[in-house]
């Protein structure tokens, strides 16, 4: 062995820097050595409990670290004096190592005891069953508890809301049913989270960071409520969709019942793409839609004799959108224009036909769907069906007038003949024909004037034409952009592929409509009315570009979604 002992088995021994010390001599060579185990151990937010620790002398019979250093120095001095006594030296070294190991174990025991105490304090903050809070009474109880121990609940909320914060994890604090009855401020007869001051404060403090204000917190909580409720609404919608899909499959089970009473459903297919056409086929084969009051009276008597079969038939006819959208498959247009539900205003009441009314209600009935809900739906169905008729009449008259105005500037014989039609003799059966004819005339008018423009070169050529004949193009744009204006109908003038490459001001490497001065002026003058300024026109054109592009983006997104859905559901569709 070498004549000098290495310190504690980890490289060379370290020394304190003691300069010009008069007490130091060669015999005190090891007096200045540091004790590497003499360290101060602290724990963040440590709760000191002296009674839980033993003294160093009580734990493993230990002495303090200074005693260990003195023992090391004595052993090293003895080793120089008795270099020949190898056995004695080894024995002393082993004894020293044992005492050092005991000292390290003592330190480790202290650390573990303090960690256990901290964990115990965290466990006693609240019971796991307290969250998420399920009732308003529970919310009041928690608010009182937080008032008595705010800091501990702040730490608890920090751990519950990690890592995504309150926006995604509010469901860990408030149960889903309770969330649906609440919002932040308590508006619209909802319970306000802000009413629970202590809970609200603790939540804010648990999410607070540098620069995070209380207004930011309120905005996040409102967004958290909105997103949590949207998840519930989407889940319900998906559940209803799957339920309807199951009902569509189960409808095949009622075929025998319908066949037994002479109701032909041979054309009914499971193919969703043909379902609406097949519903109409079934209806026509069984005298639907009903066209007269006499037929309705006769049907009411038939239903009295075989209620269940007609309930099944009505379910098929009204699937999937219910009576609000499909009342026209049960009652003819001319008949429901003379009716309402209760028979007010000299109208015939659907409620007078008791059996027919009951069969309709039973065909729509689901869990939680009351007779009052049914009456409300029937009234809405009558209102929407009548509105569709009124709108069709209005559209026919508008298009007829536009048709006549365009005929004044052309010598088209077909247009001359159609312009002799009188509005008074238009009945419901002619509405669609006139509308189609007028739309075809509009398409002809647009195509004959090279619209919509498809390229930048055509746009430049059009700008020159407009400069030479401004008034004529102003009148043309008025007709082309009716009735909704440039916001909805810009693609009648500029093709959608060209719209995607343009904006109004020409920003972002796009082509600017404003650079085509004559076209821009003609479009503005065609839209100009009293109080309509050029700034209003620019705002409308920008909005028109934005909406046209959004329609393209949505169409692409929907096409991709349907393609993915078709791929995912191919197996299930094959089963149906």
Q: In words, what does this structure look like?
A:
- The protein has 576 residues and is mainly α.
- The chain has helices at 65-81, 86-123, 136-148, 150-161, 166-169, 176-180, 197-207, 214-250, 255-260, 275-285, 293-305, 307-318, 322-326, 333-336, 354-364, 371-408, 413-418, 428-448, 456-468, 470-480, 486-489, 496-499, 517-527, 534-568, 570-575; strands at residues 182-183, 191-192, 339-340, 348-349, 502-503, 511-512.
- Helix 3 crosses helix 4 (150-161).
Number of helical elements: 25
What's the multimeric state? single chain
Over the alpha carbons, how many angstroms does the gyration radius reach? 43 Å
- Global geometry: flat
List the helices and strands and how they pair.
Layout: H1 65-81, H2 86-123, H3 136-148, H4 150-161, H5 166-169, H6 176-180, E1 182-183, E2 191-192, H7 197-207, H8 214-250, H9 255-260, H10 275-285, H11 293-305, H12 307-318, H13 322-326, H14 333-336, E3 339-340, E4 348-349, H15 354-364, H16 371-408, H17 413-418, H18 428-448, H19 456-468, H20 470-480, H21 486-489, H22 496-499, E5 502-503, E6 511-512, H23 517-527, H24 534-568, H25 570-575
Parallel strand pairs: 1-2, 3-4, 5-6
């Amino acid at each position: 062995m070498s004549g000098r002992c290495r310190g504690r088995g980890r490289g060379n021994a370290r020394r304190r820097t003691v300069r010009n010390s008069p007490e130091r001599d060669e015999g005190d060579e090891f007096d200045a050595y540091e004790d590497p185990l003499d360290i101060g151990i602290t724990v963040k937010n440590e709760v000191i409990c002296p009674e839980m620790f033993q003294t160093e002398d009580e734990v493993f019979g230990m002495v303090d670290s200074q005693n260990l250093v003195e023992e090391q120095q004595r052993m090293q001095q003895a080793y120089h004096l008795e270099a020949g006594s190898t056995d004695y030296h080894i024995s002393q070294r082993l004894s020293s190592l044992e005492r050092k190991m005991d000292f390290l174990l003592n330190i480790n025991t202290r650390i573990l005891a303090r960690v256990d105490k901290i964990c115990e304090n965290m466990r006693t903050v609240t019971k796991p069953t307290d969250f998420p809070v399920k009732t308003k009474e529970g919310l009041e109880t928690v608010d009182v508890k937080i008032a008595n121990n705010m800091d501990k609940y702040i730490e608890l909320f920090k751990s519950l809301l990690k890592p995504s914060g309150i926006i995604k994890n509010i469901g860990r604090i408030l149960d889903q049913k309770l969330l649906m009855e609440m919002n932040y401020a308590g508006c619209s007869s909802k319970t306000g989270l802000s009413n629970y001051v202590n809970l609200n404060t603790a939540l804010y403090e648990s999410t607070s960071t540098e620069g995070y204000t209380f207004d930011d917190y309120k905005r996040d909580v409102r967004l958290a409520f909105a997103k949590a409720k949207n998840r519930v609404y989407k889940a319900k919608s998906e559940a209803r969709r799957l339920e309807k899909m199951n009902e569509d499959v189960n409808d095949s089970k009622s075929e025998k019942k319908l066949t037994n009473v002479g109701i032909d459903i041979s054309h009914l297919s499971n193919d969703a793409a043909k379902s609406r056409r097949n519903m109409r086929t079934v209806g026509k084969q069984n005298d639907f839609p009903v066209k007269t009051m006499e037929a309705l009276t006769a049907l009411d008597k038939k239903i009295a004799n075989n209620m269940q079969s007609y309930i099944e038939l009505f379910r098929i006819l009204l699937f999937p959108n219910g009576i609000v959208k499909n009342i026209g498959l049960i009652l003819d247009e001319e008949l429901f224009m003379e009716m309402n539900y209760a028979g007010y205003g000299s109208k015939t009441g659907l409620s007078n036909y008791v059996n027919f009314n009951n069969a309709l209600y039973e065909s729509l009935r689901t869990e939680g769907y009351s007779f009052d809900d049914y009456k409300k739906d029937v009234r809405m169905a009558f209102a929407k069906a009548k509105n569709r008729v009124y709108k069709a009449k209005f559209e026919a008259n508008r298009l007829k007038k536009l048709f006549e105005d365009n005929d004044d500037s052309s010598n088209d014989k077909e247009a001359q003949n159609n312009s002799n039609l009188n509005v008074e003799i238009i009945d419901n059966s002619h509405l669609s024909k006139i509308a189609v004819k007028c739309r075809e005339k509009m398409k002809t008018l647009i195509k004959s004037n090279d619209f919509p423009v498809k390229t930048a070169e055509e746009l430049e050529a059009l700008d020159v034409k407009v400069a030479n004949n401004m008034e004529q193009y102003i009148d043309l744009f008025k007709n082309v952009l009716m009735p909704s204006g440039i916001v909805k109908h810009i693609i009648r003038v500029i093709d959608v592929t060209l719209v995607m490459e343009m904006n109004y001001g020409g920003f972002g490497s796009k082509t600017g409509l404003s650079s085509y001065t004559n076209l821009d002026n003609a479009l503005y003058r065609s839209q100009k009315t009293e109080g309509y300024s050029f700034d209003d026109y620019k705002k409308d054109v920008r909005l028109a570009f934005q909406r046209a592009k959004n329609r393209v983006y949505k169409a692409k997104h929907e096409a991709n979604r349907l393609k993915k859905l078709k791929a995912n559901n191919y197996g299930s569709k094959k089963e149906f």
